Amino acid sequence: MNIQFFGAAGEVTGSCYLITVGKTRLLVDCGLFQGGRATEEKNLHGFPFDPAQINLVILTHAHIDHSGRLPLLVKAGFKGHIYCHNATRDLCEIMLKDSAFLMEKDAEIENRKRQRKRLLMIAPLYSINDARKTIKKIKGIRYHEIQQPHATIKFQLSDAGHILGSSILELWLQEENKSRKLVFSGDLGNYGKPILRDPETITAADWLFLESTYGNRLHRPLAETIAEIGQVIQQAHKEGGNILIPAFAVGRTQELLYFLTKHFHDWSIQDWNIFVDSPMAIDATAVYQKHASLYDQEATELLQNDNVEAIRPLLHFTKAPRQSSQINSIRSGAIIIAGSGMCTGGRIKHHLKHNLWRRECHIMIVGFQARGTLGRALVDGAKHVRLWGETIKVAAQVNTVGGLSAHADQHDLLRWLKGFDQRLRIVLVHGENEALEGLASAIEAGGEHLKPVIARYKEIMELD
Ligand SMILES: [Zn+2]
Ligand SMILES: [Zn+2]
User: How do 315-317 and 207-211 pair as beta strands?
Assistant: First the structure.
């Protein structure tokens, strides 16, 4: 039996691991490569294995860097089932369709250029129809239900506390008289994260495949971040403008709504109207509500709090484009949460156009902004930005609120690792080089004689 790494090896995105046990072949995750052009080109090369020969897929969570190549796999002949948590299934329905929609749109734009140059037309990587076929293959399960899809394979999922439905995978493999237990951390959330429970402790494994996204970093304390959000809201109220919050549709938007509800009185939220202006975020919020049984204790208690009733009339879920453009005429007292998270597309760009030049408005940045994005330009203090060919002056105040993260930092990764009560082999995945090396040294310095190795792209490891 062996494992081969086809993504998230020496990098963060493209998570995809092929496990062979006897005649059975299974994939853990099948994510899209995301980032620069060179990285994303890897999505176009097809799979270095035959998708028709894969018996099943187990998906750790719905993020596109874990699920985004599934429609490609199905398109290329994969016939089996895709197992994941029920909530992941519901989120995939939103996210895979959105991913396909963006690919169709990109291909359309590219083809318009190609038509002018009389070049051959291109097809999108996959279509919304491919995404639909993929969703039909997904089998949603619950945490802690042992599955045995093949004689040689048993597995169960536990809560990873990263996004709704995110899972740690425990996988038992049997080949003749040899048995091995593999654990995949998936993406781990940080302890004390809002809404979701803490990552569950796993105590035993022969092999652990551990994510390392923030393996060399520490997050600032959440309490400081929350205090800062409160300050921005109070300051903006004094100045009489709007607050724009670019936010990812899944996870971050729901956390913001959670904080606004929880601190309703402390932050005088009664003075505001809150707009969730993103169809995808609205759908994702409905999935979060549907799976409220997965909330942690604090969030479950908040559901019973009067604040929920108090905020309800102030919350506006604006799905239709007409409702969205009506927000443009509001001069003050609006908190607008919209995508995309890095201001590269989506409705947030319209709101920036209408608010950025106004000194009394605030832009609150609550997520990571990659280099080269409009969001990053704002964080870096740009005085002007270009929107649809128009130059817009940046007079609004840009507040960068760090500290909200969906991932465990080094401290939390080590804390989770301490839950294992036996010797195990650790393979580090899902991180940039500095993060992987930083985490490897921190684990080695832990004094438990653990010597992690770093997985390399396409490397095969025998699971002996
Ligand atoms: Zn993730
Ligand atoms: Zn990830």
Answer: unpaired
Least confident of 34-38, 44-48, 383-387: 34-38
H or E stretch including 393? strand 390-393
Distance 255 CA to ligand 1 centre (A): 15
Beta bridge partners of 172: 154, 181
Distance (Å, rounded) from C-alpha 67 to C-alpha 82?
A: 10
* Enclosing H/E stretch for 460: strand 460-462
Whole-structure pTM over 0.70, yes or no? yes
CA 32 to centroid of ligand 2, rounded, Å = 10
**Which ligand is the nearest neighbour of the Cα of 188?**
1
Q: Kindly give, in sequence order, each residue whose CB lies less than 8 Å from that of residue 438, ignoring residues fewer than 6 positions away.
A: 215, 216, 217, 410
Q: What pLDDT, on the 0 to 100 scale, is given for residue 421?
A: 86
Taking the C-alpha atoms of residue 110 and residue 85, their distance in angstroms, rounded to an integer, is 36
Ion ligand 2: protein residues whose beta carbon lies under 5 Å: 65, 187
Of the two residues 173 and 450, the one the predictor is more confident about is 173
**pLDDT single digits (tens) 118-146:** 999 999 999 999 999 999 999 999 999 99
SS3 assignment for 108-176: HHHHHHHHHCCCCCCCCCCCHHHHHHHHHCEEEECCCCCEEEECCEEEEEEECCCCCCCEEEEEEEEEC
Can you give the pLDDT at residue 423? 83
Quick check: bond before 268 cis, omega within 30? no
* 196 CA distance to ligand 1 middle (Å): 14
Domains of the chain: 2-217+406-462 (3.60.15.10), 222-400 (3.40.50.10890)
Query: What is the CA(210)–ligand 2 centre distance, in A?
Result: 11
pLDDT at residue 332 tops 80: yes
Ligand 1 centroid distance, CA of 456 (Å): 20
Instruction: Give me ligand 1 centre to Cα 382, in Å.
Output: 30
**Whether the Cβ atoms of residue 195 and residue 299 lie closer than 8 Å to each other:** yes
How far is CA 82 from each of CA 227, 245, 340, rounded to the nearest angstrom?
Answer: 41, 35, 28
Q: 403 falls in which pLDDT band (50, 70, 90)?
A: confident
The per-residue pLDDT for 422 is 77
Inform me whether the pLDDT recorded for 236 exceeds 80.
yes
How confident is the model at residue 355, as a pLDDT?
Answer: 97
187 C-alpha to ligand 1 centroid (Å): 5
CA neighbor of 419 nearest in space, from 211, 171, 207, 201: 201
